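Exercise 7.
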Amino acid sequence: MKELVITRPDDWHVHLREGAVLQDACRDLSRYFGRAIVMPNLSTPVTNVALAEEYYAKIKDAMNLLPRQFSPLMTLYLTDKTSNQDIIEAAQSEIVYGMKLYPSGATTNSQSGVVDTQGLFPIFEAMQREKLNLMIHGEVTDHDIDPFDKEKVFIDRHLEPITREFPELKIALEHITTKDAVQFILDSGDNVASTITPHHLVYNRSDLFRGGIKPHLYCLPILKRSSHQIALLDAAISGNPKFFLGSDSAPHSIQSKESACGCAGIYSAHAALEFYADVFDQMNSLDKLEGFASEFGAFFYGLPKNLDSITLIREDWKIPEKLPIGNEWLVPMMAKETAKWKVANP
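Solution. The predicted structure, written as tokens, is:
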């Protein structure tokens, strides 16, 4: 197959950040995605509807001069102080599509995240009642837990009780990385689904350490061993609507990645769909890409599919060594490597 036409895809998990970085992140994402669920972990977290409206306006302003725009779907940042009134206002908002749970200290700008998950059960009950979606960064933050086990421990310790207590709460376990997470999603009800990133499909932890530590492949949740990568690949191409596209693209400058304490995140917005297409092609499953990229996420969130389409063509092209991001530069995913697919009509 040399050409593939699919319904315009959506990105159900992305970081746009703020300030000078925002416009360039929007530039790349708007190339062909129709909608994007925007993460709320800014330097000042987006914890209520008023802050979400401010951020939404900044995103729309950043897209003013772009050839095309995507629709930002906003999320609010859960904290131990989130109130029932916050949930009611979020459910009534026309721009907010869910609440994001970050365990405190789990990833970038998560210091204000949740310390006591069980203490939020009254909030989860309110979310279930108001039919408000819950998105979860599923890792524990205990220092005595191996970094490669933090997702599994979170599922066993926190997510299983949440899904048991709130069987009607719609939950997206973001950026899953383990065969344990895949199995949990498969064993759960239709109210539980997950996103899978391109970098967790393309790389495993051997890539992170091959030839020395690769700071631009450092992400959270961290890359896992190849057996977990294989489980993710099988889930992505399975045609099961519980698994869908969420790039978790996160812009970080070269300086912030190549530092004494480099930050976590991989930038893929420049070619995320092309990376997914290459993976599905290698797995002889291009016929499953449209469901994964363009249908299952919309179905899960109760939204219609996009009405237009895009065309992917099989054509080699070189990923740039670096890309401008705000006033700095970043190293994108697969920098200096060759992509096998290209969007022909973004």
